[in-house]
Each structure stands twice: as structure tokens, then as C-alpha cells.
Design a protein that fits this description.
By secondary structure, the chain is an all-alpha fold. It is elongated, with a radius of gyration of 53 Å. 75% of the residues lie in helices and 0% in strands. It contains 55 helices and no strands.
Length: 1019
């Protein structure tokens, strides 16, 4: 830099070291010894010692020289060294001069006394001033400037004409910061063309003039030596800086640009900098850029942040946004004014390069710094707008409301107020948005349109959450502002759906009817709704009309699954009104469409055939159900009905074989008690009393709480009478009473009381009450129900071992109505205990015993998730495909299954398949499964190092899944990971800070803090 001082040593007299003196002394003594043999003859020569002393002095043998000069002087002193010499004896005077000087050079104690004595005794002698000068030079070379000044001043004062002494005195003043005394001496020396120190004097005079702000004089001084080899690399920087300080910009450019072109800029980085700064101040940014680049390439990391900022600004102003970003992003993470300006400009640059995510973080950084309130205000407003542009409505609401509070008189106030409503809408926080609009004193048509959509969306959300009265209330609000006809129809439809879901069919029917004839999508959906409303009212004739119209419209009326379902319901309606041919026609249609419930349709068709007496066809159809759908819940029914056809015809032997097939082949079927009863009757009808009695006893023993138990009791009584063994009935009756006590009133009251305690969530008391009941009534038909509530109470009190004990007792009994529920709960607990094989066994129990598809699919979902955790990925995928085929009988089941296929593919490294499955999941519904799929889409791109694509995918969270706080947090933590992978540390930190400040999920906040701390520790 121009302000630094060059090393003085290159311009000053060599100073002598003690080691060098020691060498001179030894060499001198050796010389004396070698010459001692000749000295006897030489003593007769009076000037021998003088000449010898001069030779030794010139050879820098100062100790030996001093000895010779003393030898020379001794004969000339009358009484030793105190005797004054004759000043006319020039050699004697000079010998004394050399004695003083050599004493000084060899650091002889008292050397300065000798010097002072010499000057005092020979004040008029030329050597007097010379000696002061030499002594000053001595201290000057040792950088003892204070002592040097003392002697050099005397040398110059005594008229020492030696310009070197002036220069040394000037530099001594300079180095002791006495610039006022240094400058006149330097001016004298610099004008002396014969002085070898003139260039250096001009250089230092220039520095002093520069420091004194005498820039013109400084430029003159520097110009004087600009071609000097020693100073040619430094002078241009001083001249450029002096011209810049004077704001002589035209002169500066006239000087620097030819110089930079001529020399290629080597070593002239600061000249390039001042040239760039001039162009920057003149707003000639394109001309400034190459000079900034030259300076920064030379300075590297040492370049000041402000210079880097102006370079980045110049790039920004010329539209070179990527290059501007490269320069500015290293500055934006700081905590000073430059960082604030850099972050703001960086934000705008990112917008210009279509990178709103990074722009968001840059504006956030600029808004956190308060050095310039105008920049801070604008940055915060832009940050809020970007949040809204990226559909991050929730955070935009916080930002905008905080902005209006902090800047109540902002120039952006009106625009911010307008954006608040949009932000509420985008945030999916419909209640807050509705309340905000309802609180406005004035509502424009645009706001009413927003209100219509907000209340509509909230109504649909309430419906999906089964809050039907709230749904109706919000949909009514939407209908008051019919700005959008499509939304108006939608509100009418969902209002009808809400009433229908609440079983208020008479209220729902006219609402459906009001839009059923419309050509829009809601017209077809309303036909479907009308069909179900009448179907649920058991008005099957009217239900037929609407289901038929809906099916007739095909997929144009609704999605294929609804059309298939309506086809089966139409068949059911015909079946209920005994229009069997029509019923079979539509069951066949459902089968041909490969409807999810095609097993049910096949079974129903067989039932109709049996009803109309086409027994052979019925049996064949029942047989087909068993073969074609071996895992269907209707296989047991088909077995039972096949046997029942023969039973009704009186073919008892064939019927017995059929019922035996069900009883023996499906021992866990809920139809076993009915099959046993039918088989017992068939045995009785062919007078095989013993097997008949055995079946009746089995019903009473194993299924005492079933609907068939009373019939079995009557049946065994009649059979024993027919067999002539009536006396055995007393024993059977006694055993039945023991297992089913006749006086059940006290038992019933006690059990209901225990259930009431459980219902009131007093689980500890419920445990005591239920245990007491089971102990008192060990054979009660309510035992399994009591076990279930007891297990539930243990589960609620976190006693997992006992909960599982009683769930497993129900499962082991394998006959209770609570079997499915117990197995489901047990599976959940086993998963939490990481007992995955036991959980799988419980799900298998559910699948084997479930009569409804909903229970089956729920079990499949649980089994699917468990296999994924184990992990048995192929098994998880296989079940997921079964769920997809079954249809959406459980809300969200298909989404969950589709998501699972994607996760399996991702875990196998099959990114292409995983991406396709995740995209299908997102398309199915914007639910939590879609949110998870969106996260994994970003994750698989991150794993493939497609960082920009990953960020773009993850940023869709704000638009589609912002209400799912956990997955949104995970997504933005992954955004930060992507930033780190791209060496965008400032962006990563900004993202993590935003998560910490805005997330409501404690786990996500903790993870973000941990990652931020890790990043900070690396800096």
C-alpha cells in the first residue's frame, strides 16, 4: 500500500557488527605480529605508523588501525595523552581523528568522550564536522535515530557540506515522526542532482506532502522519480491516490489508463482500484468492472469487503447477475453495513436469475441488519412478498403483520394491507382469514370473491373432518356471495353431502336435486348423492332411478370407482325390490368392469340364483366365488350357502357334507355356529341323533353367547326326545345354566357399571371393577367384552404388558365380536415394542376373521407399514398393491399404499420408479401422504446430487402442503442440506434460522438448531 514505508537499509551506510569488529581486531593483531620483525628497522621512519594506520582503517581493521595511530602519536606527546598536539601537524590531528573514530567503531568505552575532545580541541578543523557526521551515521545505521539526530544536527550545523548527512538527518526526523523538520532537508537533497540520495529524498518528500495533504507537491515529487527503477512500481499508486483525493478524476484517468495499458497492469493493482473507483462514482459501471477485476485478482482474500461490494454492484448494474452473485454472496453473511447492502443486492440478483428461494434468504439476511433502515424496510417487505409468491401463506401473514406494526407509515403500507388477505388465503388458515375479512369495515368485490372461496374451502375442510354442522355454517356463508358460479354449485353440493353424512337425508335430497340437472361435475356427483340418500332411506325404487342415471353417464359423471360402486348399489336396489334379472345384469356389469367389490357381486349373483330356484347355477356360482376369490370374505358365505341350497331341497346328506366342509375347513369362521346348527338339524332329519346332539352340544359349549345358542338348546331337547333319551336333557340344561346363569340381572348391572367407569376415562377404577367382574363371573358370555375394556384401560395407563395379555386372550379365544379390535390394538402395541413378527401375526388374524373390507384394508395397511420397518420391502410392496386394487374403502388408503411403493423403490435405489410412485401419491390427494411423498421426491433428487432440482421440488411445500408442519420442516432442513452441498453456507444458515423462528414442531426446531450449530462450528 502507498502508506507503507520502504526498508531504509537499502539506502543507508552499512553498519558494523561486533562480530565483524572481532574479526578485524584478530586480523589486525595477526598483521602486527607478522610485521613485528620489520618494525625495528621501520621505527626510524616517522610516518610509518600513520601510513600503516590508514591502510588498516581502509581495510576496516579498526582495532589494529587505532593501535597504529596511537603509536604514531605517542612520541609527539610531551606527557602522555593529555598533552595537546600541535594543530599545525595535520597528520597528528588526523591520527587523533582516526583514534576517536575507530574507538567508536569497535564500541570502545569512552569513545564519545574522545570525539567531543577532538571537536573541542580542533573546532576549526574540517575533520570536526566530519567526525560528527560519521558518528551520526554510526547511530543512523543502528536505527538509533534520536542519537543520530544529536550528532547529525551538529555535523550539518558546523557546515558539513556532505549531502548524505542531510539525507540521514532528514530520514532520522522522518522515522521519529518529526516531519516538519524532515521535509526542508529532503527538499534540499532532492534538488541536488549530484546526490545519490536525491531519488529517495524525493520519494520521502512526496510521502510527507501526501500526509500533509499537499497533494500537488506530492505529485510533483513522485513524478520526479516515476522512471527510477527503485520506485517505478510504487510511485503510480501514490500519484493515483493523490489525484483521487483531490477528485481530479479526469487527470487520474488520463494518467492511469495509458499506464495500465502500457504495462499490462503488473504490480499496479491499486492504480487499477482507483481507476475503477472513479468510474464507479461516475456510474460508468461497465468501465469500472475490468479494473475492479484486476485489483481483486491481485488482492485475493485481502481485498476489502467494500471494494468487493462495489465490484458486485457494478456487475449487477450491468446485468451480469450470475457474476454479481459470485462476488456478493461472500459478503452477505456478515454483520456490517456492507453485508446489508450486499444481501439486498444479492436478493434482487437471485430474482433476476429466477432463483426465488435464494432471493428469499438474501432478503431475510438484509432485513435482519439495521444499519440502513430504508434497506431493512424494503428487504423485509420483499421477503414477505416472496413468501406469498411461493405460496407460503402462513409465514407471509406473520411477516406482513409484523411489517405493518414495525413500519406503520411505510411507503408499502397500502400494498402490504392488500397482501395480508391474500396471505391468509394462501396459508390455508381459513378460520383466521375468514375472521380477518369479517372484521373489515369495507369489503370490495375482490374481497367478497376471496371470502366466497375461503368459506367454501373451510366448509369442505370441516366436512372432511366430519364436523358437519360447522361445514354447513361455512358453506352457507359462501353461498351468500355467489361471485363464482362454480364455487356456488360446489357449496350447494357439499352442504348436501354434510346433511347426508349426518343422516339428514330429507334435508340433503332437495339440495342435491337443485344441481343434479346441471352439466358441471357437481351435477353427476349429485345424482350419486341422491341415489345413496334414497338407498339409505331404504327407498330402493327411487334409489334405482338416480343410480341408473349416474351409471348411464359413465365416467363423465364421476371417477371410475364411483361409477363401479354405483353399479353395485343399483344392482342391490334391484335385488331389494326383487327385480332379480336387472340385479344380475348390473352385478355382471360390475364384474366385467373389474370393480373392487366384484367378489361381492359374484356372491350376490349366486344368492339370486338360489332365490329363483336355479339351484344348480347357484351352486356353480358359489363354487366360482370360492375358486376365483379364495381370499374373499365371501368364501365362507359361499360355502355355507352351497350347503344351504341342498339343505333347503332336503338333500341332507349332501348338505351335511357341505356344512362339514365349512366347519372343518374354516374353523375360525363366524358362520361355524350357524353351520353347526344347520348340520345338527340335517342329522336329526335323517335320524342320526348322536352327531346331531354332538353339534348342538358344541354350539352350547363353544358358542354359548351366539344367536344360535337358544335354537341349539331347543334343538337338542327335541332330538333327545326323538332319540328316546329325554333324561339327558337335564344334564345339558344344567351345564348351559352354569355357563349362562339364568339370573343375569345383577351380572348385567355390574358389567354395565364397569363399562360406564371405563367410558368416563377413569381407567384405574375401571381396571379394578372389570377384574372383579371377571373373577365373579368367570363363565360370563360378556367375558371377552370385559377383557377388551380391561386391555384398553391398561393401554391407557401405559401398562403394555397387561394390555397385551388381555388382548391376546381375546385373540386366542378366536370367537368374540371383539376379536378384530383386540388384534388391531395388539398389533399397534407390538409395533411400539418392536415385536414385529407378533404384530404381523395379529394382522393375519384380522385378515382371516374380518367380515368387512374396511377392517381388511386397515389390517393390510398396518401389515404393510410393519413389513417396511422390519424391513421386508417386497412384502410391503405386495400388500401395497393389494390395497390399491381394493379401492379407497378406507379414507387415504390408496394414497398410503402408493406412497409405500415409492418408499420401497427409494430404499432399493430405484429412483425412477420411486419418483413415478411419489408423483402418483401427490396426484391422488393433498394429504399427509402427499406431503411425505413431496419430501421424498426432494430427497431422491438430493441423493442423486441434483441439488437445484431437489430445492425446486421441496419449495412446492409452501404451495401444496404448508399445513403439514413436520414434513414442511423436514423439507426445508433438506433445502439447507442442498445449500451446503452447493457451498451456499449463508443460504443454508438463513433457511435454518427461518425454521427455528417459524416452526411450531419442537422436533424440527431441535434438528434445525443442531444443524445450524454444526455449520457455525465449521466457520
Amino acid at each position: 500500500m502507498p502508506y507503507s514505508n520502504p526498508q531504509l537499509g537499502q539506502y543507508l551506510t552499512v553498519r558494523f557488527s561486533p562480530d565483524r569488529w572481532l574479526f578485524s581486531l584478530v586480523f589486525g593483531l595477526l598483521t602486527l605480529l607478522s610485521a613485528s620483525a620489520q618494525r625495528t628497522q621501520s621505527y626510524s621512519e616517522p610516518d610509518y605508523h600513520y601510513r600503516n594506520g590508514q591502510e588498516l582503517f581502509e581495510k576496516h581493521n579498526y582495532a589494529a588501525a587505532r593501535y597504529e595511530f596511537r603509536q604514531y602519536l605517542e612520541p609527539r606527546r610531551g606527557d602522555g595523552t593529555r598533552t595537546l598536539l600541535n594543530t599545525s601537524d595535520q597528520n597528528a590531528v588526523e591520527a587523533e581523528y582516526y583514534i576517536a573514530l575507530t574507538s567508536l567503531y569497535i564500541d570502545e568505552p569512552g569513545a564519545e568522550v574522545l570525539v567531543d575532545r577532538f571537536v573541542k580541541n580542533h573546532s576549526q578543523h574540517p575533520k570536526a564536522s566530519q567526525l560528527y557526521g560519521d558518528l551520526g551515521t554510526y547511530y543512523y545505521t543502528r536505527q538509533d535515530y534520536s542519537k543520530a539526530i544529536n550528532f547529525l544536527e551538529k555535523a550539518v550545523a558546523q557546515g558539513g557540506a556532505n549531502a548524505t548527512f542531510k539525507y540521514q538527518l532528514a530520514l532520522s526526523y522522518y522515522n521519529t515522526q518529526d516531519l516538519q523538520r524532515a521535509l526542508p532537508l529532503l527538499n534540499d537533497v532532492k534538488r541536488d542532482a549530484n546526490s545519490p540520495d536525491a531519488p529517495a529524498a524525493s520519494y520521502y518528500a512526496g510521502i510527507i506532502n501526501f500526509r500533509n495533504k499537499n497533494f500537488n507537491e506530492a505529485v510533483t515529487d513522485f513524478r520526479r522519480i516515476e522512471s527510477n527503477p527503485t520506485y517505478k512500481d510504487q510511485v503510480p499508486n501514490w500519484i493515483a491516490q493523490a489525484l483521487y483525493r483531490q477528485r481530479r478524476f479526469d487527470d487520474l484517468l488520463a494518467y492511469t489508463e495509458p499506464l495500465l495499458r502500457r504495462t499490462g497492469g503488473a504490480g499496479l493493482s491499486e492504480v487499477a482500484l482507483f481507476t475503477a473507483e472513479v468510474y464507479y462514482q461516475q456510474n460508468q459501471f461497465a468501465k469500472a468492472i475490468p479494473y475492479y477485476k484486476q485489483y481483486i485478482n491481485a488482492a485475493g482474500a485481502k481485498a476489502p469487503g467494500a471494494v468487493k461490494f462495489r465490484y458486485g454492484q457494478s456487475l449487477f448494474r450491468t446485468g451480469a447477475y450470475p457474476e454479481a452473485i459470485t462476488q456478493l454472496k461472500t459478503l452477505a453473511g456478515g454483520k456490517d453495513t456492507t453485508a446489508q447492502y450486499a444481501a439486498y443486492t444479492l436478493g434482487v440478483s437471485y430474482l433476476q436469475t429466477q432463483n426465488p428461494a435464494y432471493a428469499l434468504n438474501a432478503f431475510d439476511q438484509a432485513g435482519r441488519l439495521a444499519f440502513n433502515r430504508d434497506i431493512q424496510e424494503e428487504a423485509r417487505f420483499n421477503h414477505a412478498k416472496l413468501l406469498l409468491d411461493q405460496n407460503n401463506g402462513a409465514d407471509a401473514v406473520k411477516e406482513l403483520t409484523a411489517f405493518l406494526k414495525q413500519y406503520p407509515n411505510s411507503k408499502f403500507e397500502n400494498e402490504a394491507n392488500e397482501l395480508v388477505g391474500e396471505a391468509y388465503f394462501a396459508s390455508n388458515n381459513y378460520p383466521a382469514a375468514i375472521a380477518y375479512i369479517e372484521g373489515l369495515k369495507r369489503r370490495t368485490p375482490k374481497i367478497n370473491a376471496t371470502y366466497q372461496r375461503l368459506t367454501y374451502n373451510q366448509g369442505v375442510s370441516d366436512f372432511n373432518a366430519e364436523r358437519y354442522p360447522q361445514a354447513v355454517a361455512n358453506l352457507d356463508k359462501s353461498l351468500k356471495f355467489p361471485v363464482d358460479p362454480e364455487l356456488q354449485q360446489g357449496a350447494q353440493f357439499w352442504k348436501a353431502e354434510a346433511y347426508s353424512a349426518g343422516k339428514q337425508y330429507d334435508t340433503a335430497i332437495p339440495l342435491y336435486a337443485s344441481i343434479a340437472k346441471s352439466t358441471g361435475s357437481y351435477g353427476g356427483k349429485s345424482l350419486y348423492g341422491l341415489g345413496y340418500a334414497y338407498y339409505n332411506k331404504k327407498d330402493y325404487a327411487r334409489a334405482q332411478t338416480y343410480f341408473r342415471d349416474f351409471v348411464g353417464r359413465g365416467t363423465g359423471a364421476g371417477d371410475p370407482a364411483q361409477v363401479q360402486d354405483a353399479t353395485i348399489r343399483l344392482a342391490d336396489s334391484y335385488f331389494a325390490t326383487k327385480q332379480y334379472e336387472n340385479a344380475m345384469r348390473y352385478y355382471d356389469q360390475a364384474i366385467s368392469q373389474n370393480a373392487p367389490d366384484k367378489d361381492y357381486a359374484s356372491y350376490q349373483k349366486a344368492v339370486i340364483l338360489s332365490y329363483v330356484g336355479r339351484d344348480a347355477e347357484a351352486k356353480a356360482q358359489f363354487d366360482q366365488v370360492q375358486r376365483q376369490y379364495p381370499n374373499s370374505r365371501f368364501v365362507d358365505e359361499a360355502l355355507f350357502q352351497t350347503a344351504n341350497v341342498d339343505f333347503e331341497k332336503g338333500a341332507y346328506q349332501v348338505a351335511i357334507r357341505g356344512f362339514s366342509k365349512l366347519i372343518d375347513g374354516k374353523p375360525n369362521s363366524t358362520l361355524v355356529p350357524a353351520a353347526l346348527l344347520k348340520r345338527a338339524i340335517a342329522y336329526g332329519n335323517i335320524q342320526q341323533y348322536d352327531p346331531a346332539v354332538a353339534d348342538y352340544k358344541r354350539i352350547l359349549a363353544d358358542y354359548g353367547d351366539s344367536d344360535q345358542a337358544q335354537s341349539a338348546l331347543l334343538g337338542i331337547q327335541n332330538t333327545l326326545n326323538d332319540a328316546g333319551r329325554p333324561e339327558e336333557f337335564s344334564q345339558v340344561l344344567g351345564q348351559y345354566k352354569k355357563s349362562n346363569p339364568a339370573s343375569t340381572d345383577v351380572e348385567k348391572v355390574q358389567f354395565e357399571n364397569a363399562k360406564d367407569i371405563y367410558a368416563n376415562q377413569k381407567y384405574q377404577q375401571a381396571i379394578q371393577s372389570l377384574l372383579a367382574f371377571m373373577q365373579e363371573y368367570p363363565a360370563s358370555p360378556n367375558t371377552n367384552e370385559a377383557r377388551y375394556y380391561l386391555a384398553e384401560s391398561y393401554r391407557q395407563t401405559d401398562d403394555v404388558a397387561n394390555a397385551l395379555r388381555y388382548y391376546n386372550l381375546i385373540i386366542a379365544d378366536n370367537k368374540s365380536d371383539f376379536l378384530i379390535r383386540a388384534a388391531t390394538r395388539a398389533a399397534d402395541l407390538e409395533i411400539k415394542q418392536k415385536n414385529y413378527p407378533r404384530a404381523i401375526r395379529n394382522y393375519q388374524v384380522i385378515l382371516a376373521k374380518a367380515n368387512g373390507k374396511a377392517d381388511q384394508v386397515t389390517a393390510q395397511l398396518g401389515m404393510m407399514d410393519t413389513y417396511f420397518v422390519i424391513p421386508k420391502l417386497d412384502s410391503a410392496a405386495a400388500i401395497a398393491r393389494e390395497v390399491l386394487v381394493a379401492g379407497n374403502v378406507v379414507p387415504g388408503a390408496q394414497n398410503r399404499a402408493q406412497l409405500m411403493l415409492g418408499k420401497v423403490a427409494l430404499n432399493k435405489g430405484d429412483y425412477k420408479t420411486a419418483q413415478a410412485d411419489f408423483e402418483k401419491t401427490i396426484a391422488l390427494a393433498k394429504d399427509i401422504n402427499g406431503a411425505e411423498a413431496q419430501y421424498y421426491l426432494g430427497d431422491l433428487l438430493y441423493r442423486q446430487k441434483k441439488y437445484k432440482e431437489s430445492v425446486a421440488s421441496l419449495l412446492k411445500f409452501n404451495e401444496q402442503f404448508s399445513e403439514f408442519e413436520y414434513w414442511k420442516g423436514k423439507a426445508f432442513i433438506l433445502v439447507a442440506d442442498n445449500n451446503v452441498a452447493q457451498d451456499e453456507m449463508a443460504q443454508a444458515k438463513a433457511v435454518l434460522n427461518s425454521i427455528i423462528e417459524n416452526s411450531s414442531d419442537e422436533a424440527i426446531i431441535a434438528e434445525a438448531k443442531q444443524k445450524l450449530a454444526s455449520l457455525e462450528s465449521k466457520n
